[in-house]
Amino acid sequence: MSSVPPDAQSPKPIIPIVPEPAKGGDEMVSLYAAREKIYPRSVSGVFSNWRWITVWITQIVFYGLPWLEWNARQAVLFDLEARRFYIFGLVLYPQDFIYLTGLLVISALALFLFTAVAGRLWCGYACPQTVYTEIFLWIEKKVEGDRSARMRLDKAGLSGEKLGKKWLKHALWIAFSLWTGFTFVGYFTPVRELAALSLAASLGPWQTFWIFFYGFATYGNAGFMREQVCKYMCPYARFQSAMFDKDTMIVTYDEKRGEPRGPRSKKADPAALGLGSCVDCTLCVQVCPTGIDIRKGLQYECIGCGACIDVCDDVMDKVGYPHGLIKYSTENGVAQSWSTRQMLRRALRPRVLVYSGILAAITVAVMVSLFMRTPLKVDVIRDRGALARMVEQGRIENVYRLQIMNATETAQRYIISVSGLPGITIASDNEIEVLPTEVRSAAVRVQIPPDAASTGSHPIHFDVRSTGDNVSQVSEKAAFLVPR
């Protein structure tokens, strides 16, 4: 096995720059080190394949979902202007904000659970930053070549070939970013309408802003900032240590087996040379998207993508050593040489069981609530312009305004009834038709006989019931005033 390749990407220490002492004896010390561009080497293997499977699944869902139709409209649409959220057969309104809260709580608990069990697998496989960086790196490789070719191109002087490759790469990046921004806006504006407006150059100011803003964010984060987002901008990298313990699965380097490291001939006996299994090829550093050396132990920059595992296993095959010098394991698992079965058993520790129980309970509660949700909402508002009054035959009348929301996608006819006092009746029309996803207001006159109730306020109930096949009913409380 050869020694360190000439283009090896080994991490360099931050060296303080100490200028000449200033006047007065004070010294200024700068601890800032300019960023060195990382050129991740391409890698193939089990975990690389899984990463690309995740890329394909997430992007097919993201780019394809807005084009699906459901009941002659877009299947998933967050119509902010109409204040309606369509999710397949479900129609949600601002009054259903509690479900968004439940979704956020479920997401947070799921993050805690998966992090406690499997570390940063979300970051390494499904995080949008990782996914788009992987796509942009693939475009970069197709245009500029592999890692060595990209490094030579960046060091080369200005030439027609360099300008052409750089222009083509950035043109593809920008086109892909704008398509991503267009798709993002397509979740809030019907995507077919958005496409027609785009072709006619008639986009509104907000649509234009968000397409270019989201496209610019994709272009900047995945094309330029890359690992800087994971290292310095993402809060997850900072607070992950609060969710890790010694039984959390992470990417680990088996120091006992690998050290002391060093190059050697493929035919040499490492034991005779006093060497471990690590041949110090630094390929694990070269393939790392954040540029770290996993052999230095767990670092917050590690996103758990497994690229170093794939390349190390490939090197072990070439030199005839067993796999597993770098692998997914736990700190306790490496220290105590646990088997896979032992690590899986340890995953069911109290912390994980508590997270799982809470997550399951909240998820079931939200799902049951959605399943039992009544697609009818009624608000009763007293008509302040017409208080309690005496009408014909001495009857006492109160006037109410009912706001009826039809949360289904079919027209509904509703029957209004009232109860709570002897002889109480509705003196106005007690039927109303409401169009799909529409809110209609109805003035309802309620009367009672002269001696049905004493002076003061009395509770009554309005019952609103649909007349279709799928009957839904809502009861709302109100107050009936009897004047002196």
Shape: elongated
Low-confidence parts = 1-16
The N- to C-terminal Cα distance equals 103 Å
Q: Work out the helicity level.
A: 40-55%
- The total of helices stands at 17
Percentage of β-strand residues = 15-25%
Largest beta-sheet characterization: 5 strands, antiparallel
Task: Give the number of DSSP strands.
Answer: 16
> Radius of gyration, Cα only, in angstroms?
33 Å
Structural class: alpha+beta
Return the domain count.
2
Average pLDDT: 87
Explain this structure:
It is built from 17 helices and 16 strands. It is α+β, with helices and mostly antiparallel strands and 484 residues long. Strands 8, 9, 10, 12 and 14 form a five-stranded antiparallel β-sheet that branches. Strand 4 and strand 5 (90-92) form a beta hairpin. The longest helix has 26 residues, at 160-185. Mean pLDDT is 87; it is low at 1-16.
Characteristic key phrases:
484 residues, disordered N terminus, alpha+beta, single chain, Immunoglobulin-like, 41% helix
Strands, helices and their partners?
Elements lengths: L45 H19 L4 E2 L2 E2 L1 E4 L4 E4 L2 E3 L4 H22 L2 H6 L1 H17 L2 H9 L4 H26 L5 H9 L5 H21 L1 H7 L2 H4 L10 E4 L1 H4 L11 H4 L9 H4 L20 H13 L6 E4 L1 H5 L4 H8 L2 H22 L4 E7 L6 E2 L5 E11 L5 E8 L5 E2 L4 E4 L4 E10 L7 E11 L6 E10 L2
Antiparallel strand pairs: 1-2, 3-4, 4-5, 6-7, 8-10, 9-10, 10-14, 11-13, 11-15, 12-14, 15-16
